[in-house]
UniProtKB/TrEMBL annotation:
<dbReference type="InterPro" id="IPR006026">
    <property type="entry name" value="Peptidase_Metallo"/>
</dbReference>
<feature type="binding site">
    <location>
        <position position="147"/>
    </location>
    <ligand>
        <name>Ca(2+) 3</name>
    </ligand>
</feature>
<dbReference type="GO" id="GO:0098552">
    <property type="term" value="C:side of membrane"/>
</dbReference>
<feature type="domain" description="Peptidase metallopeptidase">
    <location>
        <begin position="47"/>
        <end position="215"/>
    </location>
</feature>
<dbReference type="GO" id="GO:0004222">
    <property type="term" value="F:metalloendopeptidase activity"/>
</dbReference>
<feature type="binding site">
    <location>
        <position position="121"/>
    </location>
    <ligand>
        <name>Ca(2+) 3</name>
    </ligand>
</feature>
<keyword id="KW-0677">Repeat</keyword>
<feature type="binding site">
    <location>
        <position position="115"/>
    </location>
    <ligand>
        <name>Zn(2+) 1</name>
    </ligand>
</feature>
<dbReference type="InterPro" id="IPR033739">
    <property type="entry name" value="M10A_MMP"/>
</dbReference>
<dbReference type="Pfam" id="PF00045">
    <property type="entry name" value="Hemopexin"/>
</dbReference>
<feature type="binding site" description="in inhibited form">
    <location>
        <position position="26"/>
    </location>
    <ligand>
        <name>Zn(2+) 2</name>
    </ligand>
</feature>
<feature type="binding site">
    <location>
        <position position="140"/>
    </location>
    <ligand>
        <name>Ca(2+) 2</name>
    </ligand>
</feature>
<dbReference type="Pfam" id="PF00413">
    <property type="entry name" value="Peptidase_M10"/>
</dbReference>
<feature type="active site">
    <location>
        <position position="168"/>
    </location>
</feature>
<feature type="binding site">
    <location>
        <position position="144"/>
    </location>
    <ligand>
        <name>Ca(2+) 3</name>
    </ligand>
</feature>
<feature type="repeat" description="Hemopexin">
    <location>
        <begin position="257"/>
        <end position="302"/>
    </location>
</feature>
<dbReference type="GO" id="GO:0030574">
    <property type="term" value="P:collagen catabolic process"/>
</dbReference>
């Protein structure tokens, strides 16, 4: 245990080891029990297996039930990018299927769920995945639905779903646990690992997956690959900050007694803008938070003195988001402003005066 937890191997149940025992972890064993020719049982590393095919399907079969922050689209996007971490460097291709059987079935479940690895409530074991092979569960990945799954939240606010998914999908393609401190395949939860759009696997993990599958053609041993292989990857928007910890200004509006400056549908969700704030309604028609979030905390690049918006919309062709205020407009890709903005609304043939009246008339 000390070895796989990155502690000095003293064999003594010291304070650091007691702390490690309470650290959330993957529920797959670090070593397995096997029987030697002499009839004695010994502990060995799991035998490495791999997929014989290179095109693998995946599906989120069941979703978190208790999370008010992670909608279904966010969960699916996080699974997409966690798998992409591995396919970016190895000759594996993952594609999502809408129903039926999939090579990698993803489930959020609780307690004893009939696979031999029961979950134990919050903390403790948080997820597991099955190695490739002939078993009908090969590749299947299970997350404990009793955990408070989060995304881009402070470490103390729950269990980062992307970090755990990268680890579990490592198992799903054949990697066992390792004691290397820098590896994502350490069995103990390490907290958030960063932006899913920019995360780069530690070199230890790259070498291990290369040993199984070889190197993807577009990858050097040091560079990230060209990410243009996926024609239409899912959009992964930032989530508003946990508003229970962010005090609101006195001018924060009451959603029940105000009119809105603009309403927009973005990524299938409804956004209601008022002043420098907005509310967000998920596809399941749940408010992400009863309290409004600040527009500038979500879309970075709008002016610091922004006090309201005139109009917002998502372009259907490339899914970029356009904000209008006065005689200017801004173009965003996801949460980041495009270079060269703001620009004048005269680009659209609109006069630079009276832009708000024209919008309302339209």
């Amino acid at each position: 245990m000390q070895k796989y937890g990155g502690l000095e191997e003293t064999g003594v149940l010291d304070e650091d080891t007691l702390v490690l025992m309470k650290t959330p972890r993957c529920s797959l064993p670090d070593v397995t029990e096997s029987e030697s020719l002499s009839g004695r049982r010994r502990r060995t590393l799991p035998s490495q297996t791999k997929w014989s095919k290179r095109h693998l399907s995946w599906r989120v079969r069941t979703f978190p039930k208790e999370s008010h922050l992670l909608g279904r689209d966010t969960v699916r996007a996080l699974m997409y990018y966690a798998l992409k971490v591995w396919s970016d460097i190895a000759p594996l291709n993952f594609h999502e299927v809408a129903g039926g059987e999939a090579d990698i079935q993803v489930d959020f479940t609780k307690a004893d769920h009939n696979d031999g690895y029961p979950f134990d409530g919050p903390g403790g074991t948080v997820a597991h995945a099955f190695y490739p092979g002939d078993r009908f569960t090969a590749g299947d990945t299970h997350f404990d639905d009793d955990e408070a799954w989060t995304f881009r939240s402070p470490e103390a606010h729950g269990m980062d779903l992307f970090a755990v998914a990268v680890h579990e999908f490592g198992h799903a393609i054949g990697l066992a646990h390792t004691s290397a401190i820098e590896s994502i395949m350490r069995p103990y939860y390490q907290g958030p690992v960063g932006d899913p759009l920019k995360y780069n696997l530690p070199y230890e993990d790259k070498v291990r997956v290369w040993q199984l599958y070889g190197v993807r053609d577009s990858v050097s041993h040091t560079d990230r690959p060209d990410t243009s292989r996926s024609a239409d990857p899912p959009v992964l928007l930032d989530l508003p900050e946990n508003k229970s910890t962010v005090p609101l200004d006195r001018d924060a509006p009451d959603r029940c007694s105000t009119h809105f400056d603009a309403v927009a549908q973005i990524r299938g969700e409804a956004f209601f803008f008022k002043g420098k704030y907005f509310w967000r309604l998920t596809r399941e028609k749940h408010l992400v938070s009863l309290r409004p979030a600040q527009i500038q905390r979500f879309w970075r690049g709008l002016p610091a003195n922004l006090d309201s918006l005139d109009a917002v919309y998502e372009r259907p062709g490339d899914h970029k988001i356009v904000f209008f205020r006065g005689a200017k407009y801004w173009m965003f890709k996801d949460n980041n402003v495009e270079e060269g903005y703001p620009r004048p609304i005269s680009d659209f043939g609109l006069p630079t005066e009276g832009g708000r009246r024209l919008r309302l008339a339209a």
